TrEMBL record, chain A:
Subcellular localization, as worded in the UniProt entry: Cell membrane
Name under which the protein is recorded: Sugar ABC transporter permease
Annotated keywords: Cell membrane, Membrane, Transmembrane, Transmembrane helix, Transport
InterPro entries for the chain: ABC_transporter_permease, MetI-like, MetI-like_sf
Protein's membrane topology: Multi-pass membrane protein
Domain ABC transmembrane type-1, chain residue ranges per copy: 71-282
Entry's family note: Belongs to the binding-protein-dependent transport system permease family.
Biological process according to GO: transmembrane transport
UniProtKB/TrEMBL annotation, chain B:
Taxonomic classification: Bacteria, Pseudomonadati, Spirochaetota, Spirochaetia, Spirochaetales
Domain of life: Bacteria
InterPro entries: Bact_solute-bd_prot1 (IPR050490), SBP (IPR006059)
Main location as per UniProt: periplasm
Record's protein name: Carbohydrate ABC transporter substrate-binding protein
């Protein structure tokens, strides 16, 4: 009798998560498997896929100059945007961790950019801020600096676009803030009694104590940055001279501009492999710099 | 338990494949019919179209029409995805280059013949050249859209240029440079990188007939390419066109460039269909003839349907859909309600109804007539292919940013075009 009711119980558990299971199977697993299959085919969306073997992959690695360009741009983007964003998030978190009057209001205000997300509207706003006749050039014009082609010059455009990402530091910041609150005050007190200065306390206590959160933020932001699309698509469309032609944008062009779904699928599996590689690399390296709980 | 779960999972997967093949309803004869129409545009197109649809529903109570409309951005991507998924609308507004691109991938559209719609209302050559694939009529042109060259007469006069100048390739430079000479932040041309591509296509068409011909071959020689790039290098050197650093942000949206809106650029090559939008509130524009070189093989001036209405071959109510098309194109009531929402109508009855009611604006009519008179041969489907366009654009970007000399640009363009054409 007891056994039977236990069985019923697990059955009901699966029923509860059934919507998720259905969603996962239909909306994620099926497309995932499909795209792997498509990556070995020529598939133009209309008509049936034609099996090509490894031809798509071969072409990507040997005969596609845009692939290399786009990969280069994407690596630069990840290298600029991720450390800046995490550094900025940490800085703001530390400031917002102070006991100041009305601090909750500031926390809310600083989180707002992240609620707006990587939306099209923000990208359009960015375009108007940084275009030649934009607000930023007007402001620096007042102090006599000549207008800068923030988005029009191949040298600066990627950096300018990265700022959109950096500006959306809110979710990382929130995690840091929560982490800061978790650090036992006794650690700081003990350090102070031992005569440690502010910098020493920051690097020897705060950073090691936050390191699990740094790791989490690093991995999440890195994955996001590798896949980023909106800013480059809306603001510069990959230009000027493909200097902001992020991997996601190339994928989109191949898939939805040229309708080469097979080729685009192959590109996305390569991106998946790249992300997997760097994520596991980060995990590996974390053994030497991430400290959990009692190991500080 | 586990077996139950596995069975359940398999059942859902199987359901997925059933969904994927699509559920096919059978339309009942004479029963209520629902037709979906999709188009892109602004409110000036949405409102009249919805009004015409209402009028049709009032006359045909058994038909329910649903409009699916929005802006241009992403329309094509959504459409192709819908066609692939079998969920596209019954009647679809498409852009002319898509007709061949989509038809080449399968029987996507219904073939239309004289028994369904009175085709004598249309110009036969126009239907054959622009709305057919493989010799079969696939859609109906909403209106006639032509390239036109517009100049701000007041701005020209302000800079000491005769507003009535008859433009040649040479005097665009000799006269046009007066603007930038007097005001370094102003330019004769408002061209963005994509506009310059269009200018280059016109120039090469005049020199060699086309960039890419109907046989999928590059139609110009390296020397002709060099000649064209050398000419446009002078546009940059003599201040006819703003540097790409300033304009590349407005790729395909030159009318959003503040320098254009604020009257710092005097001339542009545009399509008549978007004329009002492109003028951006500047009142002094007039249309002019394009420059054509002596002995030009082809003027290179584009004429094409504003858009094409096609009937989805997957539609369950093709007959009803074609009936609706016939109404929209040839019924006086519908023509009046639609007005100029899609340019000057391409049907004889359409033009006469609107002319009678005084609904055709003088400028649009003049620009259209001049464009038709100057129009060159239709571009080959290969020249309009999106990958080919991208190849041209990439070379022009490098050239415009000063990374390629005219000789290098011409050689690279030919090499890249050949590689891409071979893979199509």
């Amino acid at each position: 009798m007891l056994k039977r009711s236990y069985k019923n119980y697990t059955y009901i558990g699966y029923l509860y998560i059934l919507p998720w299971i259905i969603g996962f199977l239909l909306l994620q697993l099926v497309p995932l498997v499909n795209s792997l299959w498509y990556s070995f085919t020529q598939f133009q969306l209309l008509g049936d896929p034609k099996f090509l073997g490894l031809a798509n992959y071969k072409k990507i690695f040997t005969a596609d100059a845009t692939f290399l360009q786009s990969l280069k741009v994407t690596f630069y983007y990840v290298l600029i945007a991720v450390p800046l964003k995490i550094g900025f998030a940490l800085l703001v978190a530390i400031i917002l961790n102070q006991k100041i009057k009305g601090i909750n209001l500031f926390r809310t205000l600083y989180y707002i950019p992240s609620i707006l997300g990587g939306s099209v509207a923000i990208s359009v706003l960015w375009k108007y801020l940084f275009m030649n006749q934009g607000v930023v050039n007007n402001i620096i014009g007042v102090i006599g600096i000549p207008a800068i082609d923030w988005l029009g010059s191949p040298e600066l455009a990627l950096g300018t676009i990265s700022l959109v990402t950096v500006w959306q530091f809110g979710s990382s910041m929130l995690l840091f803030l929560a982490g800061l609150k978790q650090i036992p005050v006794s650690l700081y007190e003990a350090a102070r009694i031992d005569g440690a200065g502010r910098m020493r306390i920051f690097f020897q206590i705060t950073i090691p104590a936050l390191s699990p959160i740094v790791l989490f933020n690093l991995i999440m932001q890195m994955i996001n940055a590798f896949q980023d699309f909106t800013g480059a698509f809306v603001i510069t469309q990959g230009g000027p001279l493909k200097s902001t032609y992020l991997y996601g944008l190339m994928l989109y062009d191949q898939g939805f501009k040229f309708f080469k779904m097979g080729y685009a699928s192959a590109l996305s599996w390569i991106l998946f492999a790249i992300i997997l590689f760097f994520t596991s690399l980060t995990f590996r390296s974390s053994e030497s710099w991430v400290h959990y709980g009692d190991s500080i | 338990m586990k077996r139950m779960l596995i069975l359940l999972l398999i059942a859902f997967l199987a359901m997925g494949t059933v969904f994927a093949t699509g559920s096919k309803e059978v339309a009942k004869e004479d029963g209520p019919v629902t037709l979906r129409l999709s188009w892109w545009g602004g409110d000036s197109r949405h409102t009249p179209t919805l009004a015409a649809m209402d009028a049709y529903m009032a006359k045909n109570p058994n038909v329910k029409l649903e409009g699916e409309y929005g802006g241009w951005d992403g329309y094509y991507q959504k459409l192709v995805t819908q066609i692939a998924g079998g969920t596209a609308a019954d009647i679809i507004q498409i852009d002319q280059p898509w007709l061949a691109e989509l038809s080449s991938k399968g029987d996507v559209f219904t073939v239309i013949d004289d028994s369904m719609v009175d085709l004598s209302q249309f110009d036969a050559a126009f239907l054959k050249n622009y709305c057919s694939y493989d010799g079969k009529l696939m859609g109906l042109p909403t209106g006639t859209n032509v390239n036109t060259f517009v100049v701000d007469t007041k701005m020209l006069a302000d800079f000491g240029i005769d507003p009535n100048t008859k433009w040649t390739w040479e005097n665009i430079i000799s006269e046009g440079k007066k603007i930038n000479e007097q005001d370094p932040s102003s330019y004769f041309s408002g061209a963005t990188p994509d506009n310059l591509r269009a200018w280059l296509e016109i120039y090469i068409a005049q020199l060699a007939g086309a960039v890419v011909d109907d046989n999928k071959q590059v139609a110009f020689t390296e020397a002709q390419g060099t000649e064209a790039f050398t000419y446009f290098k002078r546009w940059f050197d003599e201040g006819i066109i703003a540097p790409f650093r300033q304009t590349s942000l407005f790729y395909q949206k030159f009318q959003e460039n503040p320098d254009w809106i604020n009257g710092k650029m005097a001339a542009a090559r545009i399509f008549v269909s978007s004329m009002e939008k492109d003028f951006a509130g500047r009142p002094n524009f007039e249309t002019r003839q394009f420059p054509v070189m002596d002995g030009a093989v082809n003027t290179g001036i584009l004429m094409r349907p504003s858009q094409i209405f096609v009937v989805n071959n997957n539609s369950k109510n093709k007959d009803e859909a074609i009936k609706l098309l016939a109404y929209l194109f040839t019924d006086a009531e519908a023509i009046e309600k639609l007005g100029l929402a899609r340019g000057i109508p391409s049907t004889a009855i359409g033009r006469s109804v609107l002319a009678e009611k005084g609904m055709i604006s003088e400028m649009v009519e003049k620009a259209t007539n001049e464009g038709i008179a100057q129009a060159g041969d239709p571009q080959s489907v290969y020249q309009m292919n999106s990958e080919v366009i991208q190849v041209m654009q990439d070379v022009i970007d490098e050239f415009g940013f000063g990374r390629l000399t005219p000789e290098e640009a011409s050689a690279k363009l030919i090499k890249n075009l050949e590689a891409t054409l071979a893979s199509l």
